[in-house]
Amino acid sequence: MRRNWYRRLLLSYFPIFLVTVTILVFLSFLVVNEISRKETSKADAISTRFIMENVERSVTDIEMNVLKDLQASSTYPSYLNGSPTGQSLLYDTVDRIRKLMDSSDLIDSVYLYRASDQTVLTHRGETDLAAFPDRDFLQQALLHPDERGWSQVRDFKDLGSTDETATRVISMYKRLPLPFGSQGIMVININMYQIERIIDSMTNGSVSFLVLRDEGGSLIFEAHNGEADGSTESGGKVLTTIHSDRLGWTFESGLKAGQLYSWVSVISYIWIVIAVLTVLLAIVYIIYISRRNYRPIQGIMSRLQSLQLRGDALPSGKDELALIDSALESLITQSRDYEKQHHENLLLQRSQLFADLIGGQDPNRDLAERLRKIGPFPESAGSGGYAVVLAEMNEYNRFQEAYSARDQNVLKFALMNVFQELAQSGNMHSWMEWLSGRRAGILVALSGEEGGQAEALRDVAASCRKWVEEKLHLSVGFGIGSAVGRLEDVEASFRSASEALQHRLSLGQETVLVGDELPKGDLSHVLPYLSMVSELVKDFRLSNDGWRNRLQELFESFRKEPLRDEAIRSLLQTLLQMLSREVGVVSEELNAQMSGEKAEAAWKMLNEAASLDEMQARFGEFMTDIYRTFVAVSETKSYRAMISEMRSYIEEHFDDPDLSLKHLSDRFQVSGKYASYLFKTEFGMKFVDFLVQLRMRRAEELLAETDQPIQDIAIAVGYANSISFGRVFKRTVGVTPGDYRRLKSRPSTPVDEAT
């Protein structure tokens, strides 16, 4: 019979499947119902707590408003003090009470008791305590003045009310003046009807019920007029009980039961027992029918066990289906690994071949055969020769910051496809590989006449640059190498394209550069600029504003005679180094500005400049900042006046052991390097030599004219001990201090002969 095995399996398992699923669905219904009841109980608790907190917040807001009004108003203290201001004060106090009542719909009434004359003032008027309808509550408040919180629900009848039915309220009183005064009491009454309306608006009488009870368990209120005996008329039970410490009420809530709820509630655990028995019977039946239906498979597997896969024994310790699965999995894994390895090898071979072509490596290997196997070009491509095009992304750091790694790869892939499509439209074929993060190499197979193809290649690069700028909002520069006829000469085309990209500053990054059209780079193009740099530094050193014109001329020369980017940056770096040697020693500020973080930041900006105009603007700003600092330092103190003052100071204090360049730099507010520079410039000697000369001259006088010990003379001329003094004296004069004194004591023996 056709598909007999399929039918047998289907007919064997389908009935028990239906029965089992039915039982499981029913059990699921019970479980879901139980979960729903628990979640409903949680939701009811959250809802009841929200209602309680809302009521507590409402009465708390009223209490806070009353306290603020009592603190802010001076009317109440005046009234309690019994100030003789006539009816005006009485009216003002009543007006404050009415405004307080109008501040909240929950407030039923507010009245003020004055202890001095036992008078009660309400919004309706003033009366004695004995005639006030609410005197019982007020007397209880006077007996317990320190009581806090809200009272239980009580009946209240206001002064002059014509309604014989009392109003149900909760009350709070405050001693005046705040917080523990004894001049009077203010009583605030909140209408229970308004609170009941709030609770009714927040409950659904057709679904749930809510009951309020006082501390004694007596019923205060039931939302939507339900029963208050622990269950509603519809059979609902209390699910949530929450006590409010602030009000002293207990909130009881639950769900009203419907017909479906009642029907589910009568389901007993007998159904669960029946379900478990059904599942057990299903298991027994499945085991039986499975063993019966497995016999044909067992016969097939006995045959498979006698076979071997490629000479290897089948793995033991597994069931028959696992053996088949293992064999199939092994075949699938081997196939995938082979495909993956083949793909990776192909990519590596492509990259290696491209590197060999542009690097000129391994010339003995058959490049044409390798190119044919990899197949980046059709077989007919390359009849007109080959050319290398280099594409380099401008402002690459901004590109990395603006896009994620995934987006960067997508944009680079789009750039590759655009160039390839444009090249194909020009009857050329291209092969692109990324050489670095910002630079891609493109090997273009030309066809037809060489001259026409070179011009067409320029048009393709220009079109690609324009399309990428408009559609992808990226700036890309292209360098086109010279066309070559053989694959072995592709290296020369690559060098030509690389050389072209070295002139982007002078020729512009938005230009498609062709290597054959650029001058050959050598030192003869750079040497004339060194004299211009030297003259610029000289004008800068002399505080001549002409340095700005020379800087402008320097950049104009860069534009007229294209130089390599490296040469331009090298010339500017040379300029900064020469300038640092000339003016960097003038002050610590200038030295830090030209060799510290500011200089590094300025050089970083120069390296990131995208054009000569941008580089000139940034370099000009940096030079201007240095010039301002240099002029400010130069104008602060004249060089010759400073060196004259410095020399006088040294001649007066040469006997100070602490006299040094550091001491002079602190004394005259100049750098130590600058002080040394001034000495060498003005006196032709170093500071140390000048100081030693003064000290030795004074030492000779003391040795010849006095009998002081050599130790005292050493201290007198600025040395801490006689050993260092003697060493310096002998090196300078030629004899030791003792020999010098003995020679000077014999007039017939000139000291000059001894020296």
Describe this structure in words.
This protein is α+β, with helices and mostly antiparallel strands. Among the domains are: 73-198, PAS domain (Beta-Lactamase), CATH 3.30.450.20; 376-517, Alpha-Beta Plaits (2-Layer Sandwich), CATH 3.30.70; 523-636, no CATH class; 639-754, Arc Repressor Mutant, subunit A, CATH 1.10.10.60. 59% of the residues lie in helices and 12% in strands. The chain is built from 28 helices and 15 strands. Strands 3-2-1-6-5-4 form a six-stranded antiparallel sheet, with helices on both faces. Helix 8 (320-359) packs across helix 9. The longest helix is centred in the first third of the chain and has 69 residues, at 4-72. The radius of gyration is 52 Å and the shape is flat. The relative contact order is 0.04. Residues 226-234 and 748-755 have low confidence and may be disordered.
Give the key terms:
single chain, 755 residues, Beta-Lactamase, Alpha-Beta Plaits, five-stranded mixed sheet, 59% helix, DNA-binding transcription factor activity, sequence-specific DNA binding
- Oligomer category: single chain
Q: Quote the CATH topology of the domain at 376-517.
A: Alpha-Beta Plaits
CA(first)-CA(last) distance: 134 Å
- What is the strand tally? 15
User: Beta-strand percentage?
Assistant: 5-15%
Which segments are poorly predicted (pLDDT under 50) over 5 or more consecutive residues? 226-234, 748-755
Number of helices: 28
